[in-house]
Amino acid sequence: MVHIADPAAGMAASPSTPAAAATDASPKAAGGALEHELSSGTWVIDLDGVIWLTGHAIEGAPEAVDRLRRAGISVLFATNNADPTRSELLGRLRRIGIDATAQTVVSSADAAASLLDPGSTALTLGGPGVDEALADRQVRVLCASDPDGPLDGIDAVIVGLTSRFDYDTLSRAATAVRAGARLVGTNDDPTHPTPRGLLPGSGALVAAVATAAGVEAVVAGKPYQPMVELLQARAAGITVVVGDRPATDGRLAARLGVPFALVRSGVSAPGDPVDPAADLDHEDLASLVDAVLR
Ligand SMILES: [Mg+2]
Asked: Catalytic residue positions?
């Protein structure tokens, strides 16, 4: 992977936080004390690989969310998928039986938009979720795939996951960055899981623009500081991050200073060693919730 600047560099959680202190790949929760600590507050829960996999609910996940809420635990969904609009995300959740509001779903598109000032201009290379998040923040949006759009006066180039990516689009994005625009990636996940296996993620596209423009990108989504600050602004008392990808969800937990609960229903297969290590390690969200609320 090419170099991608981490705006949280030097601001990572201290080694005393559970996930940051982890040096082995084994789950560290030996008893029920940690589970008890998680039986209140707000859980930050990843979507892909935890709630659903390519749009299909993971068995038991909707019921597990319902059990958390009935136990008085708030849920804040955090996804690095910047492609869908907010209404699409809420609709997908509703279809599998999970009610959520715009306030309780945070995407890496929202985190990227938080880096731009209202009234600024962005050139986007990404899906509708990116354009919507920017428009919500009163940012003027230009599309990098528009061959006739201007490339000067652009404050930031925002790169998310899109299949509309070709040499001309890459050239326009890199040209805008070379002309002075800031390069922002929604996230730097190298891949994303699909029924066809792992396909290129946003990180691959961000890396291409960064390489062509000769700069380092600022990355907004998990586990970076823009997402950390957005989550902290949405919820007081975050007690755990639940996710399937240690490099993003585990590192996010470390930066929030809370335990990381790994579920092996997504990119981390049962038995795979993980880094950073998890404080709790369960087959899926349902079994994690069983352990906490038993
Ligand atoms: Mg995931």
From this structure: 46, 48
